[in-house]
Amino acid sequence: MYGQFLLANYDRCPLAIESGDGCHIVDETGRRYLDMITGIGVNAFGYCHPRITAVLIDQAQRCLHTSNLVSHQHQQRLAEKLCAISGLNRAFFSNSGTEAMEVALKAVRARSTPERSRLVALRGGFHGRTMGSLALTGQPDLRQNFVFPGADITFIAPNDRAALHAAIGPDTAAVALEPVLGEGGIYPLDIEFLQDARQLTQAAGAYLIADEVQCGLGRTGKYFAYQWAGILPDIAITAKPLAAGLPLGATLFTEDAAQLLPPHSHGSTFGGGPLACRVACEVLDMIDEVLPRIPELAAQFRDRLEGLMRRHAVIREIRSKGLMFGLQLSQPGRPLVDAALKKGLFVNCTQGYVLRLLPPYIVTEAEMDETVRILGEVLRGADTRASPAIVPQ
Fold this sequence. Notes:
Blueprint: H1 2-5, E1 17-21, E2 24-27, E3 32-35, H2 38-41, H3 50-60, H4 73-86, E4 90-94, H5 97-111, E5 118-122, H6 131-135, H7 140-143, E6 153-156, H8 161-167, E7 172-177, E8 180-181, E9 187-188, H9 191-204, E10 207-211, E11 235-238, E12 249-253, H10 255-258, H11 274-290, H12 294-311, E13 315-320, E14 325-329, H13 334-342, E15 345-346, E16 348-350, E17 354-357, H14 365-380
Parallel strand pairs: 3-15, 5-6, 5-7, 7-10, 10-11
Antiparallel strand pairs: 1-2, 2-3, 4-12, 8-9, 11-12, 13-14, 14-17, 16-17
């Protein structure tokens, strides 16, 4: 079916999923796999969580869709909750992280002038695949052939404070960054770098956009990763785990930034529907309950991975923030991903040489042990010939 009917744009693993429960997925033959990538960070509470399932069923019997010509209580409650946990003032709902970034860029564009139109982003950063969000994505292989000529964007290396100071000036409209680069290989930004970004943008009259699609909503141990630096961006975006797998993204604004998108300046047919918003409200309530435990879970998992690194020289470095882990390898990671899958563990590789793990917030110590056991078996025979670390430059 994939070869005949679907666009051949994904490099899929040889796995067809029938169902899932907890931290496991089940293929069409009934074989179970421990999922440590969780739908690329979407299934923060695993599969078929009873609270989420109950809300889905109840709301499906009431109303799936309205349109934004009218209001509904779940959208209002979700916006209020997101503003409360983020420190921002207004929310706009769309269908995905890339759409949420487009909304942010549209607001910045409305404020730009010929003298203030340049954007600053990070090498290795990822902000989506639509035309605007892709223009900000600091990965040349993804941008090639798909970015309109003339985009005025300066890319700098993550955590390069000198480059950040040099890049921001009177012509800067906005700086966009992921507080933890996800697709770029799990690179947490230093607190000082984030604080500099906030101070420099304020001094220059530019906006700061925090892309929290992968690192937000509890994954790092705070609601939003920028909160580790004690800063408040002008705009923040979130998506992946927000509605537990239903399409939903949110762009959050300060009151000042929100004025850039007045009535009729933007819209979304499906964004913020009653089903997705009600599920998202339940997800945020669940995050409230589990958030205090995430640093403990992260420390337990990192301790096990560090033990794995001591036993296997193919792991050159472990980068992490909360429940985001990147294992920098000395050889390509995709063969190891395939080998782990054969043993019942689902992880993935990004940037060619980084094994990425995004465990669900419900992961147990037994499941951590199982993950490390299988990775150890896969790594035992791995080639340890040195290869340079893939660092965004």
